[in-house]
Amino acid sequence: MASNGHSNHVHGQEDQNHTNGSAVSHMPKKLKLSSPPSSPFITDSEIESEFSHHDPAVARLNNGAFGCCPASVISAQQQWHLKYLSQPDSFFFNHLQNGILQSRTIIKELVNAEHLDEISFVDNASTAATIVFQQVAWAFGEGKFQKGDVAIMLHYAYGAVKKSIEAYVVRSGGEIIQVHLPFPVSSDQEIITEFRRALERGKADGKRVRLAVIDHVTSMPSVVIPVKELVRICREENVEQVFVDAAHAIGCTHVDMKEIGADFYASNLHKWFFCPPSIAFLYCRRSPKSCDLHHPVVSHEYGKGLAKECSWIGTRDYSPQLIVPAVLRFVNRFEGGIEGIKKRNHDAVVEMGEMLAQAWGTHLGTPPHMCASLIMVGLPASLGITCDSDAIKLRTHLRDHFGIEVPIYYRTPRDGEVGSVTGYARISHQVYNKVDDYYKFRDAINQLVRDAFTCALLSD
């Protein structure tokens, strides 16, 4: 399964470049995002060594939550820590901004953004959402938006994003319309149809839809959303701004800013792109709408453009923003680089999902083309998962008694359903996972079924 060859550093002739009106910095003119291997592709034993710090007693089927970071990248991060601690003034004046610029340039090329100043680094996708929703709140406060103007979001939206919309948009006078999506889901068209219906509700009585919040890969349940189609519909329906919450996307599914066409797009780099926490990128398409975006922490860089503001928010650890070149070297040790990793993970998670569904007599929550590196697998109905609390208790039980880390999702039965699958496991696959991890999960559930276990037996 393993593949790999060491790639060169990002390189090219340096020239001077201005970003968002900030000070002149040096950056590579031409990036080399992949290169032919100078040695054989990475081996299984080398992958195992890169992730030897993982707890060997735990089957980690939940890369989607916190991601992972290989030893070579951790080492690079430690070197940045030491460079800072040995001489902070030199680090600040001579290394920090150029290092961040190089990392932003790599991400700009990877996601096919038009301009470097469209890419900013923030701690995580939740911070990115705050930046976008803060601007919406200001628009209400300044009278650009009217009380009762609408924001559309998927009801699958991540909990923290929902809370952020509540804190900034609803509190400022906006109305929220949720897109109620089916699960299990069998086609992109089901999602597109429900999205159009929600837009119709949002535009009823002459209301204006000011914002659409669209997930690229939903968290729970996990589904790849036809984001390009939904953004296109928003343009047709004159939705003012579109924010794509793509916390899982980079390193997990295809990401192309020019193809997607959103105003704002945010993705974590620690989940599927092997960075340490905490780093995400926020893409803001060049337009008048992006001129009034600001980091919620106001620093000396306020007013110099979002990318510059985000590059300094006071004394803190900036090493996650500086190790992107080391991550690029790591992923290019695999055949096909990050594209090869995405395909490898997708194919493996589908294979393991189908194996588990067959073993338990259940089904997948989505067809394979609607999953990326995560997939939903139905759990046996006999486990008695009847509410969200049962799902949490079962997850804890699997962790504490079987050494398995996997999220569990509760699906409310539809009217008339009896004995249906109401519990789903969200399994991930990352390069460190082995088939035995999934066999361990299969066997644990089979044992619980044999023992006539139900969630009702677990105490709160």
Question: Topology of this protein?
Answer:
Elements: E1 14-17, E2 25-28, H1 44-50, E3 59-60, H2 63-66, H3 71-86, H4 88-110, E4 119-122, H5 125-141, E5 150-154, H6 159-170, E6 175-179, H7 188-202, E7 209-215, H8 227-236, E8 241-245, H9 257-260, E9 264-268, E10 280-284, H10 306-310, H11 319-322, H12 324-331, H13 337-360, E11 374-378, H14 388-402, E12 404-405, E13 408-410, E14 423-428, H15 435-450
Brief rundown of the structure:
The chain is of the alpha/beta class. The chain contains 15 helices and 14 strands.
Give an overview in words:
By secondary structure, the protein is of the alpha/beta class. The protein is 39% helix and 13% strand. It contains 15 helices and 14 strands. The strands form 4 sheets. Strands 4-10-9-8-7-5-6 form a 7-stranded mixed β-sheet, with helices on both faces. A 3-stranded antiparallel β-sheet has the order 11-14-13. Strands 1-2 form a two-stranded antiparallel sheet. α7 runs parallel beside α8. Residues 69-287 form the Aminotransferase class V domain. This is Aminotransferase class V domain-containing protein.
Q: What oligomeric state is this?
A: single chain
Total discrete domains: 2
Largest sheet: 7 strands, mixed
Tertiary shape: globular
CATH homology group of the largest domain? Type I PLP-dependent aspartate aminotransferase-like (Major domain)
The helix/strand series, from N terminus to C terminus, equals: EEHEHHHEHEHEHEHEHEEHHHHEHEEEH
CATH class of the largest domain: Alpha Beta
Distance between the termini: 41 Å
